[in-house]
TrEMBL record, chains A, B:
<dbReference type="GO" id="GO:0030488">
    <property type="term" value="P:tRNA methylation"/>
</dbReference>
<feature type="domain" description="tRNA wybutosine-synthesizing protein">
    <location>
        <begin position="10"/>
        <end position="193"/>
    </location>
</feature>
<dbReference type="InterPro" id="IPR036602">
    <property type="entry name" value="tRNA_yW-synthesising-like_sf"/>
</dbReference>
<keyword id="KW-0489">Methyltransferase</keyword>
<dbReference type="InterPro" id="IPR003827">
    <property type="entry name" value="tRNA_yW-synthesising"/>
</dbReference>
<keyword id="KW-0819">tRNA processing</keyword>
<dbReference type="GO" id="GO:0008175">
    <property type="term" value="F:tRNA methyltransferase activity"/>
</dbReference>
<protein>
    <recommendedName>
        <fullName>tRNA wybutosine-synthesizing protein 3 homolog</fullName>
        <ecNumber>2.1.1.282</ecNumber>
    </recommendedName>
</protein>
<dbReference type="Pfam" id="PF02676">
    <property type="entry name" value="TYW3"/>
</dbReference>
<dbReference type="GO" id="GO:0005737">
    <property type="term" value="C:cytoplasm"/>
</dbReference>
<comment type="similarity">
    <text>Belongs to the TYW3 family.</text>
</comment>
<keyword id="KW-0808">Transferase</keyword>
<dbReference type="GO" id="GO:0031591">
    <property type="term" value="P:wybutosine biosynthetic process"/>
</dbReference>
<comment type="function">
    <text>Probable S-adenosyl-L-methionine-dependent methyltransferase that acts as a component of the wybutosine biosynthesis pathway. Wybutosine is a hyper modified guanosine with a tricyclic base found at the 3'-position adjacent to the anticodon of eukaryotic phenylalanine tRNA.</text>
</comment>
<keyword id="KW-0949">S-adenosyl-L-methionine</keyword>
<comment type="pathway">
    <text>tRNA modification; wybutosine-tRNA(Phe) biosynthesis.</text>
</comment>
Length: 258, 258
């Protein structure tokens, strides 16, 4: 079977299966994006989460319950209020940790070039930890990941270690991150439209390829007002970016075009 | 210029440049790994951080100072003590955040297959957020990344929002993560040796390829005692793994071999 026939087979198998997540459905905020990707011949999505605030109860670092996949005291894809967390924390008997987990998406791609375009769009939209995986049998997967998380231990052996005032402050930070995360999903969706249109144009008219190559560079946007609908990394991302350059980790040199 | 000559040129350029990081040198805990990779024709490292505990001072989400690359109140690659953080926090006038950042490594690879081997080793060693990037000019980069972080806001507009007891508790968690991070770096180094030896053997004796293919699958280890020196993902990783399956995000199906 040739590669594209095999890919169509994988896609049909994948999309015909039931949603195995706890929630059992795709998150509202990414339904449009997931559906759009699945209408394209060269892509299909295998998993997604729009972003959520989680309160987990576990042993130290949440290990015991983690592996039993239980101990979820609270999970929400909407902004979270102090009282919900206070109530949920009463059920904690181990070390409870509050997490904000940003948008994550896994997309299987037909060709490496398809994954490259998607990866470039992800980076340009602010999802700095995105990357490609090439499986043993040649399956090409793009994971869209952000650095934009939060992980805060709140209780130890069931004892609350912080004040209600702190939880209130923490949820403000978490809710802001969720807002920023939503903007990035919109940016990703818009970028994706532009990049795929451009790719189609380029394939139809190879001569304009040179011009369109610029879409694979990660230009910084100096005008925040313009940034939202466009396919660029905002200069003023409101986050602690786990960025090798900005945070000055040991760098010999970072290759151009990377 | 053919691909391997071009790669040798990039490697020579990269390794001849000065270390541009604040620290200006490779972290002690990864020197051996970095040197080992750089002795191999098919790899060179472009940046690395062994893992660190950081205290950053910033506006909300650390934005303003972040982009000026300042406001580092504390940074250490060793286990951290409460008093160091208490002293450093006195200098905070914005929103100070304590972070544990795990090992990160960027490796440029000659061929996609080289990146695949390294990626498989990274995943098997517990670095779940690792991924490949293919640059505009065909540069192939592997980023080794963990999900094993911590990000905890501690003060708001210079006002400390938590108790000293909490900071003590938090540093215990951070120091444990640093310990686990070290074990993973060792595991990565051991895995890498085995995988590259196996690859060399396979190239010399193609007939044993079939057998060695198993090295690209992510077997779970049921015997923690055995786990350390071996190239497998420990069943009992002591962390809140940002794992799509375990944390049950929307999954249609996860392709085999991914």
């Amino acid at each position: 079977m040739d590669r594209s026939a095999e890919f169509r087979k994988w896609k049909a198998q994948c999309l015909s299966k039931a949603d195995l997540s706890r929630k059992g459905s795709v998150d509202k905020d990414v339904v449009e994006l997931v559906q759009f990707l699945n209408t394209r011949d060269q892509f299909f999505t295998t998993s997604s989460c729009a972003g959520r605030i989680l309160l987990l109860d576990g042993g130290i670092n949440g290990f015991e319950v983690q592996k039993q996949n239980c101990g979820w005291l609270l999970v929400t894809h909407k902004p979270c209020e102090k009282d919900d967390v206070i109530v949920a924390l009463k059920k904690a008997n181990g070390d409870a940790t509050l997490k904000f987990e940003p948008f994550i998406l896994h997309v299987q791609c037909q060709q490496l070039q398809d994954a490259r375009i998607l990866h470039s769009v992800a980076i340009d939209s602010g999802f700095r930890n995105s990357g490609i995986t090439v499986g043993k049998r040649g399956k090409i997967m793009l994971a869209v990941r952000s650095t934009h998380g939060l992980e805060v231990p709140l209780s130890h052996k069931g004892k609350l270690m912080v004040t209600e005032e702190y939880i209130d402050f923490l949820l403000n930070v978490a809710n802001q991150k969720m807002e920023e995360n939503k903007k990035r999903i919109e940016r990703f969706y818009n970028c994706l439209h532009h990049a795929l249109e451009r790719e189609t144009m380029t394939n139809l008219h190879p001569k304009i390829k040179e011009k369109n190559n610029s879409s694979y560079t990660h230009k910084k946007q100096r005008n925040p007002e313009k940034a939202h609908a466009q396919c660029i990394t905002k200069e003023n991302d409101k986050e602690l970016e786990n960025d090798d350059d900005d945070l000055g980790i040991n760098i010999t040199i970072f290759p151009e075009g990377y």
